[in-house]
């Protein structure tokens, strides 16, 4: 942990579009009381200052709750994501497919970001993308 948990992304009702460019993802967007992305710059500062863990909470379309935890969450350099030490109630598609990837956005030339209409640490377009299009049930 980083001295407590910091929420850097929240989705819940699709009220905020995550189909945004690099500048928005860099500084953050949305409403901290509902849906938001904290920002890549604040996230970078957070994970480079100390050892951090990552916990992901998900609800599926039948409202079942799932979680994934990573003992190690950091930047492997100036931009790439690094996650390891997985445990959880879902498969590890985030760490398995996206570890070591740079963050891409639709306007940064990242084909997966363009196809998926969002910013994310893409290696394969459709494995794990928590910023993707929000579909209503």
TrEMBL record:
Is this entry keyworded tRNA-binding?
no
Report the residue ranges that make up the Fibrinogen C-terminal domain in this protein: 1-137
Q: Which UniProt keywords apply?
A: Disulfide bond
User: Pfam families attached here?
Assistant: Fibrinogen_C
InterPro entries listed in its UniProt record = Fibrinogen-like_C, Fibrinogen_a/b/g_C_1, Fibrinogen_a/b/g_C_dom, Fibrinogen_C-term_domain, Fibrinogen_CS
> What SUPFAM superfamilies does the record tag this protein with?
Fibrinogen C-terminal domain-like
**Name of the featured protein:** Fibrinogen C-terminal domain-containing protein
Can you name the source organism?
Mugilogobius chulae
